[in-house]
Amino acid sequence: MTPVDVEWVKKNYGLLTEEEVLTFMLDDFRRVYPVYIGPELPISKKTGAQMTVWPGVTFKDGDYSLDGFPLANATMKDIENYICPKVEWFDFSSFSVPPETSKNHTTICGEPFSLLDKAYDLMGMENIMIKMFEAPDLIHALMEKITQSRYDMIKRILETAPWVDIFIITDELGTQESLLMSPEQFREFSFPYHKRLVNLIHSYGKLVYYHSCGCVMPLVPDLVELGIDILDNLQPTAKGNDPWAIKRNFGNKLILHVQVDEQIVMREWKPKDVYSKYRKMIEDLAVGGGFIISTTFRSQDTPRENVEALLQAIRTPLIDN
């Protein structure tokens, strides 16, 4: 949930803390991440917003869009000289003792740990797509640089916080209509780098939660081969996404984390229809386990009655046949 969503739930249901919101929304995950203590993050002269821990990457104040790409015109030397976030920039002292929430909830960790998405942030998506054809060595160098930074961070967390259950890896692979890149490009420029992180996480007995918005169906077999444990979010309005087909074909290998349709159903349907739709989804896909329904929604356009109908559908116990 975004900060805006959290505040909406607090206001509408008389809740005071984020923990109360998560409990009310039936969220079983609790996210943790070490505190940043590195170099002071400068303020962008262009937007007035604070830069992220990735030098030169700044989100426009108030949203998640970027105001520029520090490696947009990078040479190989520029990539070699770029300083990625370092492990010593973060405080792990709080990780020596598990939080109270870890006793009754699943603990999930991640910034999240994106690879391609971070390459987009650094170089720009259009540049990445072009250079996959014109300068593939440049893209491999950038992916290697990002992957090593992620690897070091994940390894330190694994060593200092054995109570963490799941690690989030995220990359946006699709649009509403199609993949952002061909399966062949995914296998060349993404798969081997993600595989290093997946293997590391699995070597400590932890699970990998992989997120992508948009159309992902053509890449599901590759993601299964990659070794991910949980696939999120199977955006329901994206072309071709079919949780039922994935459950049939890969239900013994994947846990499905399925997003509710926040674009149409949660905003426009009647409460009784919201309840019926998601009750059926739960009854169909929860058979044998391996299914999580996401209660994510965009609060600005969501009627309270529909939020309550969704929660009622989730709370209703399953009846064994």
Automatic annotation (TrEMBL):
Coiled-coil stretches are none
Biological source species = Candidatus Raymondbacteria bacterium RIFOXYD12_FULL_49_13
Q: Name one Pfam family in it.
A: URO-D
What biological-process GO terms show up in the record? porphyrin-containing compound biosynthetic process
Gene Ontology molecular function terms on file: uroporphyrinogen decarboxylase activity
Task: Using the record's annotation, list all stretches that form the Uroporphyrinogen decarboxylase (URO-D) domain.
Answer: 109-315
- The name on file for this protein is Uroporphyrinogen decarboxylase (URO-D) domain-containing protein
What InterPro entries is this protein classified in?
Answer: Methanogen_methyltrans, UROD/MetE-like_sf, Uroporphyrinogen_deCOase
